[in-house]
């Protein structure tokens, strides 16, 4: 990422956020915009460019260290930071370039590189190996795949070095040259009222290089798009909206640097029978009034297709939950439990004989009015 990106791009505005946005707000804004502009979903010619912008903004703002460095750089240099000259001549000493400031040049100055270690990679140009950016994508899987774990295919579209010029931006057989205006530093200085103002070079736009014969494939940017499909292992027990990190599967690094990471946000569809309560599996099963009143042993389905026998004691109330130990989900920490909630079923239609039997039961049970203690009971 060039100095021009740090100084001129407002990543907060790209995501539609204010500077004091929380991590959660950044995450939500990125997911919304990534879905809106993902090239696989949006065929607008400008969608790919916007997708690239929001991904780049998220790469910086979602990383606490990068965000702090970005905010610091913007506060110092983005608003015309001025650094004094070396003295003499009425205060009009020799100007200091961006590289001087951060490398300790300019007449023995200690520089700001030690104070803001890592900012812009520790110098005016990032010519050494650089880590690739992180990539985030979303997948939707079934409830049972989420519980058992699954191997899924994920299609990714991300930035990569242009295959034609191998990332140089220059046409095959030619090479970029150091910018003659800034001598390859990417920054220029101008005098303003006794101070030297460092700003991105207008000739090379902060890149430090110029290209006489641009690559026709990437128009001199050195960047291309990579569409690839990778296999991702979803661990057993993943929950809805869980974010999984796949190390080294993000954007390839530059100049031999390591690749970034892939973050997969998993959406889990509902199941017809089972739900989750934390790590445990849960199910609601119907029982008859007779089973709840007299007690019974019933069969309850499990996630693997089998059954577990559950004893219902006499006098069980509707809504009571029983625990079947070790009949839930198989996790690394062990197998969780199956939570069984019984729901007493009341028949909608009764024959005349059944109605007579219930009235006879009511007379024999002598239970009285169960609402007698309610203030407005009838």
Please characterize this protein's 3D structure:
This protein is α+β, with helices and mostly antiparallel strands. Among the domains are: 133-176 and 211-269, Urease metallochaperone UreE, N-terminal domain (HSP40/DNAj peptide-binding domain); 274-365, Sandwich (HSP40/DNAj peptide-binding domain), CATH 2.60.260. The protein has helices at residues 3-8, 11-14, 23-37, 47-61, 64-76, 98-103, 143-148, 289-294, 352-365, and strands at 82-84, 135-141, 150-161, 177-178, 187-192, 195-200, 209-210, 223-234, 242-246, 262-268, 274-277, 280-288, 296-301, 307-312, 321-324, 330-331, 334-335, 338-345. A 4-stranded mixed beta sheet has the order 11-12-18-15. It has a 3-stranded antiparallel beta sheet with strand order 1-6-5. A hairpin with a 2-residue loop joins strand 5 (187-192) and strand 6. Helix 3 (23-37) packs antiparallel against helix 4 (47-61). The longest helix has 15 residues, at 23-37. The protein is elongated. 25% of the residues are buried.
